[in-house]
Amino acid sequence: MAPYCVLVTRLQQVLSKGVRRYHVAPVLCQRAKVAMSHFEPNEYVNYEMLEKNINIVRKRLDRPLTLSEKIVYGHLDDPVKQDIERGKTYLRLRPDRVAMQDATAQMAMLQFISSGLPRVAVPSTIHCDHLIEAQLGAEKDLRRAKDVNQEVYNFLATAGAKYGVGFWKPGSGIIHQIILENYAYPGVLLIGTDSHTPNGGGLGGICIGVGGADAVDVMAGIPWELKCPKVIGVKLTGELSGWSSPKDVILKVAGILTVKGGTGAIIEYHGPGVDSISCTGMATICNMGAEIGATTSLFPYNHRMKKYLSKTGRAEIAALADEFQAHLVPDAGCEYDQLVEINLSELKPHINGPFTPDLAHPVADVGTVAEKEGWPVDIRVGLIGSCTNSSYEDMGRAASVAKQALAHGLKCKSQFTVTPGSEQIRATIERDGYAGILRDVGGVVLANACGPCIGQWDRKDTKKGEKNTIVTSYNRNFTGRNDANPETHAFVTSPEIVTALAIAGTLKFNPETDSLTGADGKTFKLEAPDADELPTLEFDPGQDTYQHPPKDSSGQHVDVSLTSQRLQLLEPFDKWNGKDLEDMLILIKVKGKCTTDHISAAGPWLKFRGHLDNISNNLLIGAINIENGKVNSVRNALTQEFGPVPDTARYYKKNGIKWVVVGDENYGEGSSREHAALEPRHLGGRAIITKSFARIHETNLKKQGLLPLTFADPADYNKIHPVDKLSIVGLADFAPGKPLKCIIKHPNGSQETIMLNHTFNEPQIEWFQAGSALNRMKEMQRH
């Protein structure tokens, strides 16, 4: 669609050549409005505001801007007065939209209901993808999920209808694939209640994972706060070829930066190598940026994005993005806080793991490393799909490998599962034959959902505690994440490598150099996979699974039963009493890695995500207690008996005793789940003291009225013992940038004082004083 001002300019040029001059009304020079999505025809892409804000900020800062800065600063609530300093100041932003997956949407919508507001202020959607357990196959698993989760699905559907939120029904697909297909676009600022929301950076947007309370702020029309991110540049040169894939880019970056190397920063990819990566490949890279702690990741707008937008029915957005392209790429000469360079032409296929996504190995080496480390080399299951790698191109490359094996009479030696990213992907790969090839090689096609990637897997081939290896194209491989078995050694790699390894059945197979033996006894080598990035025909949309919110929702009711075991209306947390937190007991001193999976496990616990009291029974059951080296076993300071963490917390709460958790590095990494903050608050926790925090979890703790504090000297972690009592003093003078004192009281009567840092600003201190961000919102509404 050509902009009106271009047509007017041409008209003026033609008329100026004649005898008469005509006046063209200025209103005609406004650009044509382009809808943000097919589902919201009256909500428009606002590049004019982005342009205006960018120009204000560029003039103020008087320097070239990175792309990340353009989009983030382009959404400032007040670009004229906002303090801007990367890594230090807090920005007040106006996101364009909100997206929520069904596990986190329950608590987000319960909090929104508690706010008393009649309707969301920005376009928002709910996506049912987390509650479908993989058991037998797509059709049966989906049917069972609809039955088991009927109460929750009904709540989300009716709450969406009541408050103006679009609802994607179970079977629609994974939230991030749906966003990429329908809602992401260059320059958008989108927040989502899932840590892999950065997937949308593959379409040139700033898409950030948050907790539900952050989503509530945006849906309520309140400016959203984000600590001004630093920007890490990743310059790509060369081009991908052969067995190397976009997944290998982020696996390589994860190996360089580690699981916390991106904390507080946006990863911005640039350079000539970008053009060799498909749009969905860029999304894969951005998606897994969550595994290095990045605020988000993104790529500059280019022809690959334009092609994807056009293929997914959004050519008008692509035309508008072309016009504003100068604002959708970094300025020449912009500076990054850190720069990483990767030559794609030299990049080899990688596989990362086990137990952490930043332990990187070339595929050529992993078999040898596994034998040396004592990891099982035989692969029990290969799993492809997930929000990270379930595009049409991903499925095509996996099918390309599978087809070669079938041509030689081979099938997978390992079990093999396939998860399409969306109903549109499922329908299209069925039509184009990919799904049939993957079934023929031994694959089971699962529902369009998260499934085993988030622990929704009713695995039958191993017993808990049995040592085994699986290989996936997922994003995370923390201990027990996929199947709740702490002895499952999970490795992450690309879908085509997963497929090749599943056919071979061993980590010792390198498809670039090794041969397989066909059914006829002859050896052969797999050729590098080849597949189209997008279908030749149009995408097949499959079944219509979207529910529009009605224009008039006045007659819509949302019911939550008082006896429900799945849903529970929220009660406000208690306000701060104005006093220091004295003589708090230590619930647990955590040893080593403690992700949100350790704090609030997923898998079978997902069914309680809408019921705070019930899900609190999983609080910290996966964390290792430094006192005895065990999980879910802590000393009750009053009875001196060891018992489960949640039971001990409940005992303290019942007896009116405040408690604290002491943690290690990067506490709360992983998922965005705010339950990991809600649960300790609900059970009487007051503070979490660690060496460092993951970004989303730190914010979630603040939102719920807890104190996330860090040791001024990380070595002070060793001064605290599980049997000590801790007092946090100085809260009457709680102020931004001002450390707090912590008095450690040892059982022998001695005590020592250490200093604790925090990152609270003035509004966040008000959250703490009010008892939570939601409480503070209600106070402001009353006033």
TrEMBL record:
Reactions catalysed according to its record: citrate = D-threo-isocitrate
Keyword Mitochondrion: yes
CC per GO annotation: cytosol; mitochondrion
Subcellular location as annotated: Mitochondrion
UniProt KW keywords: 4Fe-4S, Iron, Iron-sulfur, Lyase, Metal-binding, Mitochondrion, Transit peptide, Tricarboxylic acid cycle
GO function term, MF aspect, one: metal ion binding
CDD domains in UniProt: AcnA_Mitochon_Swivel, AcnA_Mitochondrial
Pathway(s) annotated for this protein in UniProt: Carbohydrate metabolism; tricarboxylic acid cycle; isocitrate from oxaloacetate: step 2/2
Necessary cofactors: [4Fe-4S] cluster
Domain of life: Eukaryota
Cofactor notes: Binds 1 [4Fe-4S] cluster per subunit.
Pfam families for the chain: Aconitase, Aconitase_C
PROSITE patterns: ACONITASE_1, ACONITASE_2
EC code: 4.2.1.3
InterPro entries with a match to the protein in the record: Acnase/IPM_dHydase_lsu_aba_1/3, Acoase/IPM_deHydtase_lsu_aba, Aconitase/3IPM_dehydase_swvl, Aconitase/IPM_isomerase, Aconitase_4Fe-4S_BS, Aconitase_4Fe-4S_dom, Aconitase_dom2, Aconitase_mito-like
GO biological process: tricarboxylic acid cycle
Primary site of residence: mitochondrion
Family: Belongs to the aconitase/IPM isomerase family.
Cited function: Catalyzes the isomerization of citrate to isocitrate via cis-aconitate.
PANTHER family listed in its UniProt record: ACONITATE HYDRATASE B, ACONITATE HYDRATASE, MITOCHONDRIAL
Name this polypeptide is given: Aconitate hydratase, mitochondrial
